[in-house]
Amino acid sequence: MNVRDPKRNQESIESQALVRHAFALAHTLDISTLLVQVSESADVQAIEDVRDTETILWLVTNPELPMQPKRNDGLIWIPEAELTRFSQLRIAIFRAVLDEKISLDESVVCLSGVAGSRRLDTVVIANARRDFPWFRKHDLNVMKTVLVSRAFGRVLEIALRLASEGREGGAIGTAFVLGDLEELQPHLRQLIFNPCEGHSRKLRSIHNESFFESIREFSALDGAFVVSTKGVVESAATYIDASSKRIKLESGLGARHTAAASITSNTQSVAVVISESSGAVTVFHDGAPVLELEKPKPVPRRREKGK
């Protein structure tokens, strides 16, 4: 830390004070687990200076961590996007419950800050069953089959990036359906020639960073992306033809959201929808929204070395 930077010193003092009060609050309420957004080693040191027997779940965006987890600590991945504090919290609680790092009825203290600010400035007490309605209505064991997969994490990351960056200066509205292709097939119909056809599975992998720009371009087409459980984009511009009789959505949600709810109601799939009007990203499972995230701000892309 640069001792000549008074602003940075003040931020450090504020973060350290917040950490001390967060642990005191956890002790008073007999809460044994804290979720902490970590961005630099100073945050880790502030936690280690005051912790006792508490379990820390570190919220991270980058696998290159500024620390090594200790004791019974765990890591919770959140996408590298300029998410609001509460969007960060929703993802963190969502992943922590599905990964069985916290229980449905367990209260936790959460420490976070503005994405990219490099300081902690917010304390929240959260309880999954109380604060997140989808956990009260769905079978967690069924949700885990697709929602804890690497493929789902990558689809969510792609959707958030598309929502924040858009395409050629305009907003993007599209949907991704992730599931077993054999089960999905009866509910799919190709609107136009499938632009993914004829390309190798390796090139169409969502984990292939070079394929991202193709996804961005294909998002201008009507219809959804269909992604296999292996993370391969099997088709784009695909029409979803599934019964929506049991679907009840909030007013203001459009055809994409209804289609996503419908196919996840008829299959064991998950759908991720980007709203063109608001930029919000919604995850659907079993015919209902299970995760709703506000539009993230664009993240400055890292410059390659030597440029």
Can you tell me the CATH topology of the largest domain? YojJ-like (1
Quickly name the level 1 CATH class of the largest domain: Alpha Beta
Mean pLDDT: 85
**Biggest sheet character:** 7 strands, mixed
Strand order, biggest sheet?
A: 7-9-8-6-10-11-12
Structural class: alpha/beta
Task: Specify the overall morphology.
Answer: globular
Q: How far is the N terminus from the C terminus?
A: 27 Å
The succession of helices and strands, N to C, reads HEHEEHEEHHHHEHEHEEHEEE
How many structural domains are formed by the residues?
A: 2
Q: Which architecture of the largest domain does the CATH hierarchy give at level 2? A: 3-Layer(aba) Sandwich
Q: What is the C-alpha radius of gyration, as a whole number of Å?
A: 21 Å
For CATH, the homologous superfamily of the largest domain is named as DNA integrity scanning protein, DisA, N-terminal domain
Helix content percent band: 25-40%
Proportion of beta-strand residues: 15-25%
Specify the number of helices: 10
Low-pLDDT runs of 5+ residues are 302-307
Number of strands: 12
Overview of the molecule:
Helix 1 packs parallel to helix 2 (41-50). This protein has a 7-stranded mixed β-sheet, with helices on both faces. The radius of gyration is 21 Å and the shape is globular. The protein is 33% helix and 21% strand. The chain is built from 10 helices and 12 strands. It folds into 2 domains: 6-132, Pyruvate kinase, C-terminal domain (Pyruvate Kinase, Chain: A, domain 1, 3-Layer(aba) Sandwich); 140-293, YojJ-like (1, CATH 3.40.1700. The longest helix has 23 residues, at 6-28.
